[in-house]
Design brief:
mainly alpha; 2 domains; binds zinc ion; single chain; rod-shaped
């Protein structure tokens, strides 16, 4: 039987635990169950998620931050951010769900920044075009 105090496996006829000296004759069946349940819970509840998908979370956060930094490159930045989004969604099933959510948010921000940059650049070009266009073209 298992000692309800320390979990050591003692022989069934033992009256005291060989490890901690707990009085085993006093321990009821329920006490033993109570000890073993948190042990099982520990194995299932510690770090929920698929460790095989952890790489996606790491890759996602790296790519989302990278896309933010290269947002001035426009198209590569958007491609990078979209890849990061995909990896982030895969990473939601990994052990690092929080990291994946963070990288999805960052890649979303990166896409918005890139779109704003495109609008900004487009405005500059169009104002240049307006300045260069003879005024009668406007009428
Ligand atoms: Zn014990």
């Amino acid at each position: 039987m298992y000692c309800p105090n320390c979990g050591t496996n003692n022989s069934n006829d033992a009256h005291f635990c060989i490890n901690c000296g707990h009085d085993l004759s006093r321990g009821t069946q329920e006490e033993t169950k109570e000890y073993r349940m948190p042990e099982n819970g520990y194995h299932t509840d510690s770090r929920p998620g698929d460790p095989n998908k952890n790489w996606a979370s790491y890759l996602s956060i790296i790519m989302s931050v990278a896309s933010l930094f290269i947002s001035f490159t426009l198209i590569p930045a958007v491609v990078c951010a979209i890849c990061s989004l995909v990896f982030g969604i895969i990473g939601l099933k990994s052990q690092y769900k929080g990291l994946s959510i963070a990288s999805i948010v960052v890649s979303g921000v990166s896409i918005i920044v890139t779109v704003l940059l495109v609008v900004f650049v487009f405005n500059i070009f169009s104002s240049f075009a307006t300045a260069l266009t003879p005024s009668y073209y406007m009428w």
